[in-house]
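Inverse folding, one chain.
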């Protein structure tokens, strides 16, 4: 094995994202004395919980060669459904179940349009992004539901007793752990990579491509719904405009985490490291006086970096590899 191939195997993009996260934490700690406090760390975890949960599902979809731009709208539709049902007299626990079911059905609807009717996921989810957001306004009519049960709201805003970790940490860790296990250790995970690399070859290999993709869209809807529940509890409100722009943060985190937009490449730990990096950067910017809207600039910048830099890196690697091969060939000719 050449020195070039050894360096390539030792350092990958997702490892670079982990390094970027460490550097971001160090910069944040030096930039403000309040950054490394328990209250701020709790805030960081709370602020990324919904994005991280949705990103675990988005990673599966993009690796498989698809995308879902309607995730923020499905999250908002879940929240609106919870508020609508609770306002209509349904017990809050049952309202949460209704919201989860709505998110799941919304994801299945996306999947059916893509897998059964053969429509491109980009076009489908742009359309359902607007459709689901419109349904939020139909349900609540610009009248947020704020009178939610205090015990449930406490779960969205308080920490686990005797820790600095918010309650949202529990579903986040469990769902991220399951996503990592499935993607990297199971047959389904291997299928997702194969489908993203070459869907035609995957189909001829006996992999049920359409069923897998339908399941991934359903999974995306369900994770968006879980995020919608957490979002509703955290803000103690169900409103039709909730989570606007979250899809940008999710996609930026997934791509910056090393998932290739063309499919077939990615790791769950890279995605999670990228999500945490977004939260760390947002917190650091706010502590030094930047507006919360600066996160949109950061998300857009990371999105560009995640698309451009891997291409540049791959081009440099290919040039080096070609130069190494030519050098070896010349040595063989001379000998």
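Residues assigned per position:
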């Amino acid at each position: 094995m050449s020195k070039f191939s050894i360096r390539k195997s030792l350092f990958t993009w997702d490892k670079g994202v982990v390094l970027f996260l460490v550097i971001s934490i160090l910069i944040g700690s030096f930039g403000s004395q309040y950054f490394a406090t328990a209250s701020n760390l709790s805030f960081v975890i709370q602020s990324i919980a919904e994005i991280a949960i949705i990103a675990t599902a988005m990673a599966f979809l993009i690796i498989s060669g698809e995308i879902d731009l309607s995730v923020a709208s499905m999250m908002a539709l879940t929240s609106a459904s919870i508020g609508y049902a609770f306002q209509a007299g349904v017990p809050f626990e049952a309202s949460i179940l209704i919201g989860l079911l709505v998110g799941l059905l919304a994801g299945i609807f996306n999947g059916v349009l893509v897998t059964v009717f053969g429509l491109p996921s980009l076009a489908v989810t742009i359309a359902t992004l607007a459709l689901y957001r419109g349904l939020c306004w139909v349900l609540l009519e610009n009248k947020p539901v704020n009178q939610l049960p205090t015990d449930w709201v406490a779960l969205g805003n308080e920490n686990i007793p005797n820790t600095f970790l918010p309650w949202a940490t529990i579903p986040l860790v469990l769902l991220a752990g399951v996503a990592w296990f499935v993607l990297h250790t199971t047959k389904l995970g291997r299928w997702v990579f194969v489908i993203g690399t070459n869907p035609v070859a995957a189909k001829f290999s006996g992999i049920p491509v359409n069923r897998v993709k339908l399941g991934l869209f359903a999974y995306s809807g369900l994770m968006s719904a879980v995020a919608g529940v957490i979002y509703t509890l955290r803000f103690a409100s169900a409103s039709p405009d909730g989570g606007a722009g979250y899809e940008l943060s999710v996609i930026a985190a997934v791509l910056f985490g090393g998932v290739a937009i063309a499919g077939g490449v990615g790791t769950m730990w890279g995605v999670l490291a990228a999500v945490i990096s977004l939260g760390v950067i947002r917190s650091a910017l706010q502590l030094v006086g930047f507006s919360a809207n600066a996160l949109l600039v950061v998300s857009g910048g990371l999105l560009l970096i995640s698309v451009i830099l891997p291409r540049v890196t791959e081009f440099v690697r290919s040039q080096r590899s070609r130069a190494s091969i030519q050098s070896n060939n010349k040595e063989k000719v001379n000998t």
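Confidence is low (pLDDT under 50) at residues 1-9. Residues 294-334 form the longest helix (41 residues).
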